[in-house]
Inverse folding.
């Protein structure tokens, strides 16, 4: 079922979470280790992230460095299929990015998802690879997520890249996009960011999943700001519990987010990472309960390979 229909047909807050494909060389069972403990709480959908190629430098025997392009976390399509068939009652939402894809390759990926019976896509631009300062699209690729959304909408109308194709099939993808309560790092201000968020909705996206945030006020203000510019689709809060001491410095750097003073104070009182983990769960429960009371459509959790904290939150909230 399409995510938007799951939301519209439900009178209560749904539960969903995001998975990272395992690092190359690992086994699919590491995915099931994350998903199995969460199934008890009836997730409505599971997202699977997509990871672009990265350039790495490997030392050769002669001491020189060799430049190599690798994908550390391949397997989004296969994991999406595996999840779909292992848990038939749960929808799977693969992520599809602009980075590394030409429009033709995007079309092939969408055809694969369609053949697998997958009706949901989270459409994203992707970040610049670590060795690049700015995002550079492929030649004949999408520079921003809004044109990727438009390509998927075209396929939903039976319009493929080759307009000489006859009797084309209309796909039925429900497309979600990313939103940033604390603004996307490259945007000069929130108004600019919202203008382009609206472009993604106008191109056919039917809901938004937010970047993680630790202060619910940021989410509520973001929803108000979206409504103010005419964005009316459901806005799903994305949540990630703090797990380790290091994260209070790393998460703001990676995701351009603030960690509230009270949460930082609680984390700094902890003597071990086990205590930080517990603090993260308590904060996550409080955040989730308030969001649920305010009637959010879905509570969506970023697992980042760990599900015990999400399990504890889900147990307290759902
Ligand atoms: P866009 O919507 O294209 O926006 C990127 C920036 O460009 C913004 O600053 C925007 O304001 C600006 N902009 C947009 N359109 C235009 C335009 N037409 N002209 C000028 N400026 C414009 N990354 C991955 O690689 N894989 C994943 O699986 C993944 N999953 C994610 C899941 C969620 C819920 C979130 C919130 C993020 C995820 N990301 C993922 C990260 C995401 O790819 C990055 O944040 C990326 O930098 C922006 O992606 P976007 O789709 O929001 O980009």
């Amino acid at each position: 079922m399409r995510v938007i229909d799951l939301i519209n047909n439900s009178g209560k807050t749904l539960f969903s979470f995001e998975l990272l494909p395992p690092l190359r060389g690992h086994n699919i069972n590491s995915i099931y280790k994350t998903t199995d403990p969460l199934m008890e709480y009836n997730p409505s959908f599971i997202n699977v992230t997509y990871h672009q190629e990265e350039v790495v430098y490997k030392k050769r025997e002669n001491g020189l460095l060799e430049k190599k392009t690798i994908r550390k976390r391949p397997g989004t399509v296969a994991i999406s299929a595996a999840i779909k068939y292992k848990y038939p009652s749960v929808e799977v939402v693969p992520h599809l990015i602009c980075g590394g894809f030409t429009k033709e390759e995007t079309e092939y990926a969408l055809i694969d998802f369609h053949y697998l019976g997958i009706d949901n896509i989270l459409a994203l631009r992707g970040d610049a690879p670590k060795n690049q300062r700015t995002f550079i699209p492929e030649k004949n690729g999408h520079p921003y997520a809004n044109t990727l959304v438009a390509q998927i909408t075209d396929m939903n109308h039976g319009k493929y890249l080759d307009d000489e194709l006859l009797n084309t099939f209309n796909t039925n993808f429900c497309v979600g996009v990313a939103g940033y309560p604390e603004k996307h790092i490259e945007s000069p201000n929130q108004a600019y960011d919202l203008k382009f968020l609206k472009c993604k909705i106008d191109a056919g996206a039917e809901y938004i999943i937010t970047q993680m945030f630790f202060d619910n006020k940021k989410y509520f203000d973001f929803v108000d700001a979206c409504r103010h510019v005419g964005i009316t689709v459901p806005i799903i809060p994305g949540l990630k519990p703090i797990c380790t001491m290091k994260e209070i410095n790393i998460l703001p750097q990676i995701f351009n987010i603030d960690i509230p003073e009270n949460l930082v104070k609680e984390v700094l009182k902890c003597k071990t990472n086990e205590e930080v983990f517990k603090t993260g769960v308590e904060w996550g429960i409080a955040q989730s309960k308030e969001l649920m009371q305010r009637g959010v459509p879905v509570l969506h959790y970023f697992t980042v390979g760990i599900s015990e904290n999400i399990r504890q939150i889900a147990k307290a909230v759902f």
